[in-house]
Design brief:
With 569 residues, the protein is of the alpha/beta class. It has four domains: 4-63 and 161-329, Rossmann fold; 77-148, no CATH class; 397-413 and 424-439, no CATH class; 441-568, Arc Repressor Mutant, subunit A (Orthogonal Bundle). Helices cover 49% and strands 11% of the residues. Helix 19 crosses helix 21. The longest helix is centred in the middle third of the chain and has 37 residues, at 357-393.
Length: 569
């Protein structure tokens, strides 16, 4: 990445360039020009950039390509702790030991939640331990649905220029998860990427933890080796964690009005105290005017917007022309030589068109519609969470005695004369005839009710729950391999799993991965090993073996098998 043009020195009009590096742009929103500065630097850097839009109706970064939010679930202790602290807005203290134990060996957040639920249901927790688990249960109950019902992408596909990841409809906790996942993915697998972190006080907070903090810190320490840079957008520095700020070498400091923030701004200017600007100069900066402080220069500059030509920008820096504001920013495209601009910078044409009066009005209307849509989506999202909780807590039971009593009341006995002896009713025979005709329902479809039969069906239910739990404990890749095996009626070679199920190349890490997956499925008795080191599906066989001794009919076995397949899906 070559040097990036920032703008022009005030008042000489000399051009200013900065070295590619981690940087921060500060200044009061709407009054300093932070977003315009970042857009201009990205457009002139020639790099791919990822921008997160986190506020509903946000009008910044209108020129770019929207990409789906990227997220990968994690359950290691550090990640889960930072996630819960971001949700609770406070640092965990006494919960740390319990959370560390719960996270050990877990595959995802849901598995941790199951462990917490089981511990509380066991009734053995007392005192402070019970309080800790209750708090963790509350946190996870609110966090997991945010992930479960979100439409995340498992791959990060970027295009040239600005990639916009729209997070407006997600909660702050979900936004933190996404930014963390993106930063981690870029650091490990991408290069020449600019990651723009918005609202730094929210995602890199000083007083409490957040999943983004550790990811951003690692990114700043290691990213530059692959030309990956963090660019921070922050209104001020007061609430931002100082550890990542210490690694930043380029500071672009804009207008501030609050005295403490003015002092923080002056502290970052790399000049002797006598040569630094006074507080009033910071408080009098106009839109687009910034103090640049880096390891090799310190200047007061006018940042050239991406859509503004060199001559006008230099004239503004010299004080010969006015800074475009409001309607002054809307250029008359008919008076411009669009063909000449298109040859040198096609993106500039699009940028100028975006600022036409008609398009600005249309953008405002679209933003209002988006706000309404996001409000409806939030209502639907909350409804889904409530519905999920209701189904989770629902435990339907069949009142067998009531059903039998009601049915017996409906039986019409034959009319007899008073002198005749009362007929003897064979109740057991009636029950035997009635029970097979009772309608089945829900996940209890394989049960029928009778004293001895119920005992047998209780065992069947226990078997069903065991197999369902085994399926739920599988990872996503293990479930995928199991689904693939269930579609095959013949033996499957390990390499077939590699190439046809996971679409990978044979050998190396892929073969090791498949070997571990097949080992897990063998242990769970979902597949069996055959001659020639091949594998065959055996989930149906496992069901037959376990419940055949409880007088289950073929229809009931089919029903249970199909129910387990639906759990697998």
């Amino acid at each position: 990445m070559n040097k990036i043009k920032l703008g022009y020195v005030i008042p000489s009009g000399d051009p200013v360039e900065i070295n590619p590096s981690h940087l921060i742009v500060t200044g009061i929103t709407q009054l300093s020009g932070k977003t315009t500065t970042l857009e201009a630097l990205i457009s002139r850097s020639g790099s791919k950039a990822i921008v997160f839009k986190t506020k509903p109706g946000e009008k910044s970064f209108t020129l770019g390509t929207e990409v789906p939010p990227f997220f990968r679930d994690r359950s290691d202790y550090e990640f889960v702790r930072s996630l819960i602290e971001a949700y609770a807005k406070e640092k965990l203290s006494i919960e740390k030991g319990s959370l560390m134990q719960l996270s050990k060996g877990s595959k995802d957040l849901e598995e941790i939640k199951i462990r917490v639920d089981e511990a509380l249901a066991g009734g053995k927790l007392r005192g402070i331990k019970e309080e800790i688990y209750t708090r963790l249960q509350h946190y996870l109950s609110n966090l997991i649905p945010q992930i479960k019902y979100a439409n995340f992408s498992s791959t990060l596909n970027l295009v040239a220029g600005i990639n916009i990841m729209n997070l407006e409809r997600y909660t702050e906790e979900a936004q933190s998860l996404i930014i963390h996942s993106v930063a981690d993915e870029v650091l490990k697998n991408q290069n020449n990427i600019i990651l723009v972190i918005p609202e730094a006080w929210k995602f890199i907070p000083q007083k409490y933890n957040n999943p983004c903090k550790r990811a951003v810190e690692s990114f700043i320490r290691q990213g530059a080796a692959n030309q990956n840079y963090i660019w921070i957008d922050s209104q001020d520095m007061a609430g931002v964690d100082k550890i990542p700020l210490k690694q930043i070498s380029t500071w672009i400091l804009g207008y501030q009005s609050e005295r403490n923030e003015v002092k923080h701004t002056l502290d970052q200017i790399s000049l002797p105290a006598k040569l630094k600007p006074g507080p009033e100069e910071i408080m009098q900066l106009k839109i687009g005017q910034f103090y640049l402080s880096s390891n090799d220069q310190m200047n007061k500059v006018y940042v050239q917007p991406a859509w503004l030509d060199d001559e006008t920008a230099a004239g503004i820096a010299k004080g010969e022309k006015e800074i475009p504001q409001g309607k002054k920013m809307e250029f008359d495209l008919k008076k411009m030589n669009l063909e000449l601009i298109a040859q040198s910078n096609p993106a500039a044409v699009l940028e100028k068109q975006m600022h036409s009066p008609d398009n600005i009005k249309l953008a405002d209307e679209i933003n209002e519609l988006r706000k309404d849509i996001f409000a409806k989506l939030q209502e639907f999202y909350e409804f889904c969470i409530q519905l999920n909780n209701n189904f989770t807590n629902l435990k339907p039971e069949i009142n067998e005695e009531l059903i039998i009593a009601k049915l017996l009341q409906k039986i019409k006995l034959p009319q007899i004369q008073a002198a005749a002896p009362s007929p003897k009713i064979d109740v057991d025979a009636i029950i035997k005839e009635i029970l097979p005709k009772l309608p089945a329902g829900g996940s209890s479809a394989i049960y029928q009710v009778a004293p001895l039969e119920k005992i047998k069906r209780d065992f069947v239910e226990e078997i069903r729950l065991k197999i369902v739990e085994d399926i739920k404990s599988l990872s996503a890749d293990e479930k995928k391999a199991l689904r693939y095996s269930e579609t095959k009626d013949s033996d499957i070679a390990p390499n077939e799993f590699v190439t046809k199920c996971f679409l990978l190349s044979v050998g190396g890490s892929a073969s090791t991965k498949i070997s571990n997956i097949l080992k897990t499925l063998l242990n769970r008795e979902f597949i069996e090993k055959t001659a020639g080191s091949r594998y065959r599906k055996s989930m149906r066989k496992r069901i037959d073996t376990l419940i055949a001794g409880h007088d289950a009919t073929p229809e009931e076995i089919d029903l249970l098998y199909n129910h387990l397949l639906s759990e697998l899906i």
